[in-house]
Known about the structure:
By secondary structure, the protein is an alpha+beta fold. It contains five helices and eleven strands; from the N terminus they run ββαβααββββαββββα. It has helices at about 20-35, 45-50, 65-75, 125-140, 210-225; strands at about 5, 10, 35-45, 85-90, 90-95, 100-105, 110-115, 150-155, 175-180, 185-190, 190-205. The strands form three sheets. Strands 3, 6, 7, 8, 9, 10 and 11 form a seven-stranded mixed sheet that branches. Strands 1-2 form a two-stranded antiparallel ribbon. Strands 4-5 form a two-stranded antiparallel sheet.
Amino acid sequence: MIKETRRGLAVREKRPLNRVQKAMAKGMKASVETLALSQLSREMDVTGLQAVRKPATGGGKALSLNTLIMAAAARTLPAHPLLNAELVESEIVVFEAVNVGMAVATPAGLIVTVIQNADQLSLQEMDGEINRLAGRARSGKLELADIEGGTFTVSNLGMFGVDSGNPLPRPPESAIMLLGAVRPRAGVVDGQVAVRETCWMTVSYDHRFIDGATAAAFLEDLSKVLAEPQQLYEGTRG
């Protein structure tokens, strides 16, 4: 039997795109074609987060670092409205709601679910939504309300050992943040070398209306929240 070839190479198999892959292909093509993409990365010290990983419920389950970082990002966004906006022709449309997309790895591929009004959630509520949406995504039971209305996305690939990368925003969103793996690294604290838990965070954004200073200011404010994480337990419902 003569095998099919392409570019002079034998073809092992052909796989049609599934529904998720088709949506991703369309969205990423639009991202490259319509946005003027730029990225900024910063190494973040998340040592303090380990100390505040209190149980989310009476069952004794500690909050994950992902929950704490997602909450920190959501609460930082209102002070940086251009990262929670989109460009429509000649107008910048800034949204009141902070609906944070969360990338979930599933057997069908990476699916982005949306946490509605994420900046208004307590840590307990954020943790519950993350677990609910991740469970629905992996079981194939997502509803339309679980995946639409996003204004900013966070993609955590640290669990796969990834340190950094250049993520693409999902149009019509104009910004996305990639979380890298948390690793022990040498740092300087009060003039002394110490082991710190750090990770790289990269923001990709539409440079047509978001400049580097704006993206850098968001990362700077986020770093302050991560340095004083006890404030995440304050000023929210629950």
